[in-house]
Specification:
With 591 residues, the protein is α+β, with helices and mostly antiparallel strands. Helix content is 57%, strand content 11%. The chain has 20 helices and twelve strands. The strands form three sheets. Strands 3, 4, 5, 6, 7, 10, 11 and 12 form an eight-stranded mixed beta sheet that branches. α5 runs antiparallel to α7, α14 runs antiparallel to α16 and α14 runs parallel beside α18. The longest helix has 37 residues. The structure holds flavin-adenine dinucleotide.
Length: 591
């Protein structure tokens, strides 16, 4: 089934979450709805015509390593060149370096489209964007002038090199060494694993952002520095020359995203890989975190993308496949499976959760835009705090939704979902990485609870929950027949979030382990309440425009009545504390 970019859904969600200022106003003065639509439509055309047709083939062929060279699947290089030629690589980057400086809301919308069409391809520009971000934030003027224009144009790609065999979630354990060379440069020695697009021949050069330790580094995360290490050493004129001392020593064989090369990278097998410090010595993790926050939202958007793709695929199948007869159709021809209540439930769940995840991600992108672009300092600070609060929710909720939607997609296909030729299985396999990389979803939940809830002594979360409650009350007061029990159910979900948040804030001070035990159900609860409210805002907008019978209203109601109703149960799980969990020693689970 061909991919169709959900242009209207994306625009609808943008209008719902971008409320202050609206498109075409304030920080978005030069970005009215027509402009956004034009960009999103054009991206949709490119994705459908160039990227989507390679998705299944890339899965079958996979990238492979031949004599130290990574060979990407047929068509990959041509698609990358077309992507760069069309200017897509430069969308978000600053104008000073040749970018188009479009805001995050557009970047997220377009990124959803690349990743829905072809997740394994979408990772390459995603990682490059992260590397650009790190360099932009903390690179020296010299490094920026030499590298940024080429990375922004897409002439060179970028990578993030954090993970080592003994240092995954815990980056404080990393051991890659950086020795000062005495001329302002450094020599790096060590092994990184799982490096996405660490080696390939799509471009003439690759710019690695590498975390490493200096000889006098304090232990743990406070002793980590960030280095730029090019695959080919770059002359003052920007021309790539000799190979640097960095090689790809292997490719991982993976469950999914087969076309994306996941590389073992060896630095310094000879004299050391030449590296350049980015930011200050021992402060690399701070820069990396700035970049990782943007990347976490980008991975959340990948979740939306996969959920959307799986939903489109399942919808198409369910509208064609005929089995049995519905209650209302006892004697006629076999019914389309989409008409059976259980299949309809699966499809509605996929569609509604995808929409909720998209809204959370775009709301996070909007908060990020405000944090960068608003004129007033306090407004920027408040927006930055909101973006910080929502980022782990965007990453974890949206990527969990992707896995659930892809699994339901297989279920909708029945046995045909389990065999590879329908393509539903690939979405399931591809989606499974999303809750793992860029900080596992367990780590996101801990981040939400331990770092984000305490922001401004809890005020950021309290303010946000107050806004959710106001929408729930508005839905209740509207009392529109099309809303069913939406107001009541959302009010219960938001109350559950408020209670669990207060409990978490106390537990953080008094019983830290209890807070950690409840972090994952708490994040889910947060996603349900927030997602339900964003959908309800869309429903309110439809009703005020006289479109109460639109699918957005029905799906918002479905989400509130059938999905967000899990919120009070999750709050009970959170506020019960960790006693039940801590009564189970891991050893007792091994028997
Ligand atoms: C396909 C792929 C692409 C990747 N791309 C990149 C890349 O480009 N660059 C890069 O640097 N890395 C990359 N990674 C690495 C990825 O970010 C890590 O796999 C991820 O951070 C988890 O680390 P880990 O695999 O060591 O798991 P571990 O850290 O060993 O975690 C295992 C489990 O324990 C849990 N856990 C660990 N610590 C805690 C804790 N303190 N509290 C609670 N639970 C905990 C985790 O949530 C997880 O469930 C990639 C990985 C894959 C598979």
């Amino acid at each position: 089934m061909a991919y169709r970019a959900p242009v209207d859904d994306i625009l609808f969600t943008l209008k719902t979450v971008v409320r202050e200022p609206r498109l075409g106003e304030g920080i978005y003065t030069h970005l009215d709805e027509a402009t956004v639509r034009a960009v999103v439509e054009e991206a949709g055309r490119f994705a459908s015509e160039v990227l989507a047709p390679l998705n299944h083939k890339g899965d079958r062929t996979a990238s492979r390593l031949e004599g130290g060279r990574v060979v990407t699947p047929p068509g990959w290089k041509e698609a990358y060149d077309a992507f760069v030629a069309a200017g897509w690589a430069a969308l978000l980057a600053p104008e000073d370096y040749g970018g188009q400086a479009l805001p995050e809301i557009v970047g997220s919308a377009v990124s959803e489209i690349w990743n829905a069409a072809n997740l394994a391809f979408g990772l390459c520009p995603l990682l490059t964007q992260s590397a650009i971000h790190a360099l932009q934030v903390d690179g020296s003027d010299e490094l920026k002038a030499l590298y940024l224009p080429r990375m922004v144009s897409g002439q060179w790609t970028g990578t993030m090199n954090l993970t080592e065999p003994q240092a995954g979630s815990d980056l404080g354990a990393l051991t890659t060494r950086a020795l000062p060379a005495g001329d302002g440069t450094y020599r790096l020695f060590g092994t990184k694993i799982f490096i996405t697009y660490g080696e390939h021949e799509l471009t003439e050069n690759i710019v690695h952002m590498v975390l490493a330790r200096l000889p006098d580094a304090p232990p743990g995360t406070r002793g980590i520095s960030l280095f730029l290490v090019p695959k080919r050493l770059v002359g003052p004129d920007g021309a790539p020359g000799a190979r640097n001392d960095v090689v790809c020593a292997g490719l991982e064989h993976k469950l999914g995203i087969h076309a994306s090369p996941t590389c073992v990278m060896r630095y310094g097998e000879q004299d050391g890989a030449v590296g350049y410090l980015v930011g200050r010595e021992h402060h690399g993790l701070r820069t990396m975190f700035i970049m990782m926050n943007a990347a976490r939202l980008a991975v959340g958007v990948q979740g939306v993308a996969l959920a959307e793709r799986a939903t489109q695929h399942a919808m198409a199948y369910a509208m064609e496949r005929r089995q049995g007869r519905t209650h209302a159709n006892k004697d006629g021809a076999m019914s389309r499976i989409a008409e059976h209540p259980d299949v309809r439930r699966m499809l509605a769940t996929m569609r509604a959760t995808t929409m909720a995840a998209r809204a959370i991600c775009l709301a996070t992108a909007h908060a990020l835009d405000r944090s960068h672009l608003e004129a007033d300092h306090d407004t920027r600070r408040d927006a930055a705090h909101l973006a910080a609060l929502l980022t782990p929710v965007a990453k974890a909720y949206a990527t969990d939704v992707a896995c659930e939607a892809a699994s339901l997609g297989i279920q909708v296909h029945g046995g045909m979902g389990f065999v590879e030729e329908t393509g539903a299985a690939q979405f399931y396999r591809d989606a499974r990485i999303l809750p793992i990389y860029e900080g596992t979803n367990g780590i996101q939940a801990i981040d939400l609870v331990t770092r984000k809830l305490p922001l401004e002594e809890g005020e950021v979360a309290t303010r946000y929950i107050g806004e959710l409650a106001a929408t729930a009350a508005e839905v209740g007061a509207a009392n529109h027949a099309a809303f069913g029990l939406m107001g009541e159910r959302l009010a219960a979900a938001v109350d559950a979030l408020r209670d669990a948040t207060r409990w978490m804030q106390r537990a953080l001070a008094e019983h830290h382990e209890d807070a950690l035990a409840g972090a994952t159900p708490y994040l889910r609860l947060f996603g349900l309440a927030a997602g339900g409210v964003y959908l309800a805002r869309g429903a309110l907008a439809c009703v005020s425009e006289g479109a109460a019978d639109s699918p957005q209203v029905a799906l918002a109601r479905f989400f509130a009545e059938q999905i967000a109703v899990a919120a009070p149960g999750l709050a009970t799980a959170v506020t019960s504390g960790g006693a039940a969990l801590f009564s189970i020693e891991p050893e007792r689970l091994c028997t």
